[in-house]
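[audit] Reproducing an earlier prediction to check determinism. Same input, same settings, fresh worker. If the tokens differ from the archived copy the diff job will pick it up downstream; this log only records the rerun itself.
[audit] input (136 residues):
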Amino acid sequence: MLAGVELILHAGDVGGDDVLDELALIAPVEAVFGNTDPPGHPRLAQEVVREIGGVTIHVSHGHELGSPTADKLLQRYAGDVLVYGHTHRQLVVRAADRLVVNPGAAGPRRFDLAPSVARLTIVRGVADVELLPLAP
């Protein structure tokens, strides 16, 4: 499912270095800390901002907004694509030429939510996203 991706962006609640190590076998990983991760972890940032193929991507966990919503993220952060976690609920919202994405949670099933990830594709400066369920 992730074979061939160029970069993995993790939106927090990582669960430990072993998760980052496993993901790094697939592609380079950039991750932010979530509310369940230890603050100051050397491999986790408060936010990640990357420009890829003419698209600016902002990743944060979302807990810094209290109860994150697409509107709150769009108001607080610049970027063409805003990725967050925290709620563990899949979400894709298009707002004009911007995209807000919560890939869900890739770990064990929680809150009656099926595990999932999102695959972001950028072609000629245009971002598109696909939510992908993970096998239980």
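[audit] rerun output stored. Observation attached for the diff report: The radius of gyration is 14 Å.
[audit] end
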